[in-house]
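#help-structures
NK: newbie question, is this the right format to request a structure? protein is YdcF family protein
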Amino acid sequence: MTKVKKVFIWIIVLGISLCLVLALKIYNFGWNSKAEKSQSIIILGCSVYGETPSPFLKARIEEGYRLYKEGYADYIIASGGQGPGENISEAEAMKRYLVNKGVPEDAIIKEDLSTSTMENLEQSKRIMEERGFDKAIVVSNKFHLKRASLMAKKTGIDASFSGAFVTEHKEKEYYYFLREILALFKFYIVKR
């Protein structure tokens, strides 16, 4: 076997090993995270179809609502700006959904300036400081929680985490789980 082939094989083996390690980190964190009592629940934004939350956003909202109803926190920070194809911000879609579920409007704080997970958390941290909150529960899909935890730490949010899994869209969950491996790798390199 030539030296070039050996190097090529080692690169492939290292790449596969790295992907497996990152996949395990994502899986373990997402499926083992537990919410802790806090002042606020930060629901990270996701797509809105016109004015309707996408199935992934709906699952996140339902998880945040469950935590709120079970007394984990008194406030919900609905975090997400308005993206392409969205008639309203993700924060507004979350607020409307939660109000329809019976959550008082004054318990929902809209953060509608962000366009990425990092911005979600930076803007939510600003709101937490303004309100005097020192602890939060971050809610997203399970596959997203590991990277969100690193971003929360970077922004200085003392957080626990709780994730949603959309059973009726398993294929998309698996697809985004695989995509998250690359996103996590990128975060470790560029820290964003």
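mod (FA): yep, format's fine, and the tokens are attached above. Residues 3-32 form the longest helix (30 residues).
NK: thank you!
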